[in-house]
Each structure stands twice: as structure tokens, then as C-alpha cells.
């Protein structure tokens, strides 16, 4: 029997309570995963409410089609949430979306299934793509990229200080034989890491960096945040859950930029609200998982949720 991998939804109540303000509204779940948030959103909506979900991962799409086959208020789109403008325009809802939810990063089924190639714990083909139907796999990239590019990715996206040594070891190893499995890559990286942190796999940071690069994760986030401004209705809520500081920094900066507005207007001219481009109100302080949630689901430990409300 095929193994079933499940996902425990993080900040479920908090996210849905912040998101749904109008039960008859049109909502977007930009990261369907296994539908934990989607299911809860649908429960909050009345017969007029609609939910459009998006995911890059064909397995998530198949799951959505099966799970919500009999749910007329639900639709699913395959692609990146960075294409939000197109998906929302196709639904005729530009400027009319009541709320957008983004629960960033990878799902547990992606991490836990060795065949997806994200895991340094279980051996599998070195893939790491959320969208297995397009783009370059981790193996394709790692066997062709220049040493310096590999080092930069591991340093910037993995925040790994031994990135140069690791990139050097990867390039030396691939000259002997192409690197095609997660176990081999993890071993090469671990051997190049001179300082193993207690309780942390020595390849953790490097794997995170490579995953972020292969999936263009930060570029996609920057794009969807900007595009949410045109998609949302006035008063619509943007709710974003991040799992590491690189993601959260982008979200925090984006909200701050549009709450404060343009601070660099030429001096000496009367400034109108329009010119300031203040398009968001802050939805309050960042929210973290409760102790009870962290005890029940350790993955929620690093989750940070931020909320913003479209103002203009
Ligand atoms: C943390 S999981 C979401 C879990 C979901 N909220 C649930 O409760 O089941 C993140 C999901 O977002 C998807 N994803 C990540 N980045 C994406 C992007 N740029 N565009 C579309 N989907 C993306 C991943 O494929 C994954 O399925």
C-alpha cells in the first residue's frame, strides 16, 4: 500500500479568524498544501462565499480535487502564488478579494516523502522541486552550477557560514561522479562542516538554502506581496505565516513600506494622502504559536504570522 503523508496545519484558528471578515466574501488560500486552512475557511463561509486555492505541487492539486470534489464554493489552481494577478483576474475578482492567506514553505508530505528529494534524513532522488512538472531539479542545478554560485546560495539562503567549504566539496565530489541522491549530498555537506551544532543535522542549513533557490521561494514571495495590493478589496486582509527569518523579513518590510508610505517625497510641496501611497494598515503584532501548539506540533515553533489590512 502506498504510504500516506499528512500535514498538521499551523496556527489554524488564529489564521482563519484573522482572514475571514465576511462570510459571503471571495478568499484566496495561496498555499493549499493538504487543505487544512482551506477546509476551516470553507466552514466559516456561507453559501455565497467562495474560496480559490493555489499550489505549485501537482500532488497537492490532486489532493484538493479529490477532497473538495463536491464543494461548489471551492476551486483550485495549479501554479505559483506569484501568478496571483492572473488567477484573480481570470475569476473576475481583481480588487474584490476579501482575504489572502499564505502559509509559506514546504508541507510535511513534501519533506517526509523521500521520493520528493527534500530530506537529508531519508535517501531519495535529489529533486526538491515543489512543482515537479517544471523547472530545474536540485540535482540538475548542483551538477552544473559554478562553485561560487553554490556557495552564495548556501550562504545567503541557508545562512550557513561554512558555505565556501561546502561548495568546494560539492564540486570536487561531482567531478568524480554526478550527485543524484539526497544521502550523498547530505554526506558531502556534513563532511565539509567542521562544526556540527548540537541537535541539528549538519546539512540542515545548506539543504534549506538549496531548496529556497530551486523553488525561487523569496522571489515568489516578493511578487505575491506586491500583487496582493491590487487583488484585495479595501478592508481585505492579508495573512502570512513564515517559517524562517528570510521569509519573515520580506513580509515585515513589505507591510512597513505600505503602512508608512513613501518617505522620500521632494521637500517643499504639499503632500496629499494619495502621494504618500499608504496602502495598508497593520493588523497588529506578529503572532506565534501557543505553547500547547508547539508541544503538539514542533514544526509550529518557528511560525510567525503577520496580518495587514488593505487601506487604499
Ligand atoms: C506549509 S504548506 C501549506 C499547508 C496548508 N496550509 C495546510 O494546512 O495543509 C505550503 C504549501 O505551499 C505550496 N507553495 C509554496 N510556495 C508556493 C508558491 N510560490 N506558489 C504556490 N504554492 C506554493 C507548497 O507546495 C506547499 O504545498
UniProtKB/TrEMBL annotation:
It comes from the Bacteria. Gene3D superfamilies: Putative methyltransferase TM0872, insert domain (1.10.150.170), Vaccinia Virus protein VP39 (3.40.50.150). Signal peptide: none annotated. One of its GO terms (cellular component) is cytoplasm. It catalyses: cytidine(1402) in 16S rRNA + S-adenosyl-L-methionine = N(4)-methylcytidine(1402) in 16S rRNA + S-adenosyl-L-homocysteine + H(+). Its EC number is 2.1.1.199. Specifically methylates the N4 position of cytidine in position 1402 (C1402) of 16S rRNA. This is Ribosomal RNA small subunit methyltransferase H. It comes from Marinobacterium lutimaris.
Amino acid at each position: 500500500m502506498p504510504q500516506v503523508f499528512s500535514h498538521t496545519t499551523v496556527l489554524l484558528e488564529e489564521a482563519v479568524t484573522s482572514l475571514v471578515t465576511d462570510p459571503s466574501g471571495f478568499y484566496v488560500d495561496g498555499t493549499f498544501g493538504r487543505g487544512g486552512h482551506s477546509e476551516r475557511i470553507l466552514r466559516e463561509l456561507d453559501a455565497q462565499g467562495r474560496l480559490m486555492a493555489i499550489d505549485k505541487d501537482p500532488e497537492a492539486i490532486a489532493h484538493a480535487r479529490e477532497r473538495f470534489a463536491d464543494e461548489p464554493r471551492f476551486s483550485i489552481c495549479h501554479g505559483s502564488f506569484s501568478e496571483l494577478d492572473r488567477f484573480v483576474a481570470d475569476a473576475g475578482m481583481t480588487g474584490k478579494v476579501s482575504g489572502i492567506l499564505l502559509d509559506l514553505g514546504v508541507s510535511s508530505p513534501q519533506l517526509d516523502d523521500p521520493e520528493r528529494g527534500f530530506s537529508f534524513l531519508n535517501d531519495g532522488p535529489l529533486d526538491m522541486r515543489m512543482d515537479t512538472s517544471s523547472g530545474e531539479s536540485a540535482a540538475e542545478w548542483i551538477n552544473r552550477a559554478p562553485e561560487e554560485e553554490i556557495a552564495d546560495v548556501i550562504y545567503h539562503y541557508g545562512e550557513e557560514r561554512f558555505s565556501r567549504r561546502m561548495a568546494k566539496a560539492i564540486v570536487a565530489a561531482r567531478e568524480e561522479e554526478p550527485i543524484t541522491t539526497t544521502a550523498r549530498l547530505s554526506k558531502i555537506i556534513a563532511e565539509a562542516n567542521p562544526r556540527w551544532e548540537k541537535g541539528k543535522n549538519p546539512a540542515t542549513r545548506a539543504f534549506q538554502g538549496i531548496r529556497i533557490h530551486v523553488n525561487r521561494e523569496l522571489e515568489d514571495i516578493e511578487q505575491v506581496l506586491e500583487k496582493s495590493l491590487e487583488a484585495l478589496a479595501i478592508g481585505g486582509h492579508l495573512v502570512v505565516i513564515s517559517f524562517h527569518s528570510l521569509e519573515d523579513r520580506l513580509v515585515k518590510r513589505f507591510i512597513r513600506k505600505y503602512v508608512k508610505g513613501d518617505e522620500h517625497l521632494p521637500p517643499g510641496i504639499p503632500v496629499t494622502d494619495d502621494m504618500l501611497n499608504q496602502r495598508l494598515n497593520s493588523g497588529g503584532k506578529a503572532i506565534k504559536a501557543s505553547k500547547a501548539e508547539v508541544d503538539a506540533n514542533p514544526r509550529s515553533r518557528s511560525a510567525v504570522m503577520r496580518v495587514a489590512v488593505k487601506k487604499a
